[in-house]
Amino acid sequence: MEIQNVLFAFGLTLFAGLSTGFGSVLAFLARRTNTKFLSVALGFSAGVMIYVSFVEIFPKAEDSLVAELGKVGGYWATVLAFFAGIAFIAIIDKLVPSFENPHEVHRVEEMDLPERAAKFKKLYRMGIFTALAIAIHNFPEGLATFVSALRDPKLGIAIAVAIAIHNVPEGIAVSIPIFYATDSRKKAFIYSFLSGLAEPVGALVGYAILFSFINDIVFGILFAAVAGIMVFISLDELLPTAREYGEHHLAAYGLVAGMMVMAMSLLLFV
Q1: What percent of the chain has pLDDT over 90?
Q2: What range does the domain containing 122 cover?
Q3: Does 260 map to a domain?
Q4: Is residue 257 part of a domain?
Q5: CA distances (Å), origin 243, targets 20, 105, 232, 261
């Protein structure tokens, strides 16, 4: 495994993770949250993830495992790994209380200044726990981005961009309550920035653990699990949030647009 490929995969993972900081900056610059744009963007991200999971990642995992384990064994291993990925991210999501879930995006204008003093402790606690929740969610996402980029750099770029879009509102969710609790943009940005670091950390830990075991079977299992993780994130988090913060049709249009862009980008490399 060439060091250039590893560095490239890690760079993409770092880019995706640190986009939470970009979300924090957007929150401070915007007088009102552009919920229509956010809805389309989240739908777009979900479209990319769902399309690439079923059209590209799952088939590649199946091909790799069938070649090593035979048709029946390979297909069973692919399906089991896919649903294991879903179960893994679902358990993580279940462990995070709903009021601290990083995908409960707050609008900038929801918290006015008179409420700040009365809700100082609650807001600050919300921001801290949201940062921790994001770190937990981002850990497997970082491994997913890293493994995908390691296996197929072009595919890794598409997944990194989709996850980066997905991480922007997470940055908003961290920074807004901390800012209104402390009146410190710097502190709010730092917590938002640090929460995104869990993504490259997930990549590094995963690489360190799996490096000596990397082969076609491990790659196939990881790829199938990555597909499951991304499908669950899209259906359980991105699409519901997109519908909540915009019109239903906007989320659907973003979803279709994401699928179309992903399809075109894959066709360019056929």
Answers
A1: 11
A2: 51-267
A3: yes
A4: yes
A5: 21, 12, 16, 21
